[in-house]
Specification:
The protein has 14 helices and 15 strands. The structure holds pyridoxal-5'-phosphate.
Length: 422
């Protein structure tokens, strides 16, 4: 009788994991269940979720209410296309709810299945707007080094992390990367660089600027004081549209519903995903400002994903947003984030640490020199704390429902791991 293969063996034989080495897979942690900010693997080992995996889980794991909503919607209508003149009730109600929550003027949404699709959509929208205005040469997208905008040929071209692009060329042309706006950078110098770049390329060739309000994957990098208002003013002056990538920051992670509100930004497009449904069903929403709608009025937008406006995702998103509101989770993200940052800051005294920083529940520790953060994350995982290594940075983005004691344990375990570094 043959011995049944273990899940680890089946995984190694049949699954290609994102960002893993093909043909040489590491043994996976196989998650079995979750509740709040607690996870258990298939061996019953308990972990504190310091990252939500990929930042998505605002309301925490294992919410029976969201399971019920999804099941009820599947029983009623699992899916029907939203192309052309087809629609469904949950996605219409969700769009209207999002218009209430979003900053002024962003009253319409285009739904997607996730972040990269949202950035591809935003880029197509702004380029199409220029095209229909009789300015097809106005197609360059300004981005920043260290930015992460996704994996499509345009969203990856917008991304400013070179190793992620290696070997995938040619990517979409027409992307120019400005310097990373690190917390301690000189905002005036960054704005001068933006002005010089516009002068060099010619404003008449530039469609839009895309940016995360706070850089996430790049290392939880809050912008220097005064950066965003000046950038916005320069873009306005030159008729360049602003696309905000709020795929991580949207729906509360910075301690405000949107990063746009935190930094007082009046964006033309805001791209969201992740916490829209807390990841219970994949879904994203691209907010389009009335200004851009006016430019596009009368134009067919020949673009769409099969699962656009998914009724199950929409029903779950509505219930998820209600939980965020009912339980005051945006405020919770602000307060527990501030607590974690305060307790984390002393690690800056360690020789191995260059900086500890954060905004809301986006926290990062950058190691000094060219130290790799991998062993720090691996050490924490051993002790049942999930944090993420991104190059020489540790990034954290726990669920908003994380308890104080759990948040403190993440910081304590991380601090102990950092102390082990030479
Ligand atoms: N933009 C940002 C800021 C992100 O953090 C991510 C994913 O982490 C994306 C875009 C891409 O989103 P997705 O992985 O859902 O395609």
């Amino acid at each position: 009788m043959s011995v049944p293969a273990t899940l680890t063996e089946l995984d190694a034989a049949h699954v290609i994991h994102p960002h893993a080495v093909v043909g040489a897979p590491a043994a996976p942690v196989i998650w079995a269940r979750g509740r709040g900010a607690t996870l258990w693997d298939i061996d019953g080992k308990e972990y504190i979720d310091g990252t939500c995996g990929l930042w998505q889980c605002a309301v925490g794991h294992g919410r029976p209410e969201l399971a019920r909503v999804a099941a009820e919607q599947i029983e009623r209508l699992e899916f029907y296309a939203s192309f052309w003149n087809f629609a469904n009730e949950p996605s219409i109600r969700l769009a209207a709810r999002l218009a209430e929550l979003s900053p002024a003027g962003l009253d319409r949404v285009f739904f997607t299945n996730g972040g990269s699709e949202g950035i591809e959509t935003a880029i197509k929208l702004v380029r199409l707007a220029c095209h229909v205005q009789g300015r097809p040469e106005r197609n360059v997208i300004l981005s920043r080094k260290s930015a992460y905008h996704g994996v499509g040929v345009a969203s990856l071209a917008a991304t400013g992390i070179p190793p992620l692009k290696e070997g995938f060329g040619p990517l979409a042309p027409g992307f120019v990367h400005l310097s990373t706006p690190t917390r301690r950078a000189d905002a005036d110098a960054l704005v001068a660089e933006l002005r010089a770049t516009i002068d060099e390329l010619g404003a008449e060739t530039i469609a839009a600027f895309v940016g995360e309000p706070v850089m996430g994957v790049g290392g939880m990098i809050p912008p220097p004081d005064g950066y965003w208002p000046q950038v916005q003013a320069v873009l306005r002056e030159h008729g360049i549209l602003l696309i905000l990538d709020e795929i991580v920051t949207g729906y509360g992670r910075t301690g405000r519903w949107f990063g746009a509100q935190r930094y007082d930004l009046d964006a033309d497009v805001i791209v969201t995903a992740k916490a829209l449904t807390s990841g219970y069903i994949p879904m994203g929403a691209v907010f389009v400002h009335d200004r851009l709608v006016e430019l596009l009025a009368g134009t067919a937008f020949r673009h769409g994903f099969t699962y656009n406006g998914h009724p199950v995702g929409s029903a779950v998103a509505l219930a998820n947003l209600e939980i965020i509101e009912r339980e005051g989770l945006v405020e919770r993200a602000a307060s527990v984030g501030a607590r974690m940052l305060e307790r984390l800051q002393p690690v800056e005294e360690l020789e191995a640490v260059a900086e500890a920083r954060g905004v809301g529940l986006m926290l990062g520790v950058e190691l000094a020199g060219d130290r790799d953060a991998g062993p720090v994350a691996a050490g924490a995982l051993e002790q049942g704390v999930v944090v993420r290594a991104s190059g020489q940075k540790i990034v954290m983005s726990p669920p908003f429902v994380i308890e104080d004691a759990q948040a403190d344990r993440i910081v304590d375990v991380l601090t102990a791991e950092l102390r082990k570094l030479a």
